[in-house]
Amino acid sequence: MNTQHENPGVLPKFMYPPFPARPGLGELGRVHFVGMGGTGMSAVADLLLAHGLKVSGSDQRDNAALEVLRRRGAVVHIPQDASNVENVDTVVVSTAIKPTNPELAAARAAGLRVLHRSDALAAAMADAKTIAVAGTHGKTTTSSMISVMFDGVGARPSFAVGASIAALGTNAALGRTGPDSWFIAEADESDGSFIKYRPTIAVVTNVEPDHLDFYGSGEAVTAAFDQFVASMADGGTLVACWDDEGARRLAENFRERGGNVMTYGTTDGSDVLISNMTGKGTASTADLVWDVPTVAGRASGEAKLTLSVPGAHNVRNAAAAVCCALGAGLDVREAARALESFTGSARRFELQGKARGVCVYDDYAHHPTEVAAALEAARTVAGGHTVYAIFQPHLFSRTREFSGQFAEALAIADRAYVVDIYPAREEPMPGVTSRLITEAGSSEVRYAASPEEAAGQIVSSAHEGDIVMTIGAGDVTTYGAKVLAALAEGGADNAQDSA
Q1: Nearest residue to 199 (alpha-carbon basis) of 185, 188, 189
Q2: pLDDT for residue 4 is more than 60
Q3: Which domains does the chain have, with CATH numbers?
């Protein structure tokens, strides 16, 4: 499915009202997923299997996610081939699948029903009340926190988020079903598909320009979030971060139109006010005070947040979760206590290992604001020790648009190494390289020709108590192992020298 449209800055037609209804589970028949091994696709396939549907899928190579689905009854094809869509009724694709893919082409030629992953996820929601979490940053962690919180108070939610949740051991599960049940979904704005879920509660953590290869302009990004808010179910509640300019604008506009709004933040005027934030090591605490309208009438109160994850951004994410507890009529203090069991999600400040007393963490951050938040958290965890970073830019277009902001964010580290751009779905752009970042920043933000070069530079100067962060949305997650191996090897060399 091609996400590019001819007029950058103009929203695709499907993003305007009337918004699509959720497809019915009974309409899908036998479902085949093209590219089923991806995180988002495997999650939806798992949910449809749990609903009792017959599911098959394919990918270019096998992986752990496909093995899990195979054990749960899915038919898995490796590699992809047109014959794989025979004897199926519905074919599901993600934005990454090109029209020339043999299975998609065969499905269209045969007149099969073809759905985007977001439509299949909407079908999996069935008649549950939905909490959809959107935002340029923080949506994976926030939706994960909400899932852990609802589970912790016994609500047995269904959920689908963009990373495995450590406390729940998965990124998707089917919980209680029926009209009084809850489904928590990460709503991805990158391709505009986040307007398909008709949420009872819509969470917006922040709104900043991103994915400009799809939207074409920051104005189009803002307009897309307007459409996301407009897509809520009748009587739905918008939960928005009052500290973020873009999210605040959404809240103010929706409130002026008579919509239900609940805001959170450290700024005066927040409905759920955060104060007394502290951070030590990987723990965070804060006080929450609220006075808000809810489904059961006006509610006021206060609670203490104690989190097992670092960073002011995670305190805000937890406050968003508390807003959802208020909106859903949960016991808020019990819900706040349940957040203590949230220990993170995959690739969100995830510990990769420790060698020679140096801890290596990995983070999916790929926008300047996310990079800054990850490194600020690293400074808290480091407690005065040195913070090193290896950053892999993701997309040529994003590097071109935000090179200066990336340089500023990376300067939060004591020393940052920037490796070559991970192109993902893009072709190279003339003059766009990682040096746009290093040439715009301080002398401590440096170019490295390879992960091995970056690892070697770090190992030569790192000491016990220091922290290394691998940061980016590409294959930089594999660099942590290189750093740990280099640290271990350096430790052996040092021991031999001492002898």
Answers
A1: 185
A2: no
A3: 25-121 (3.40.50.720), 126-341 (3.40.1190.10), 350-498 (3.90.190.20)
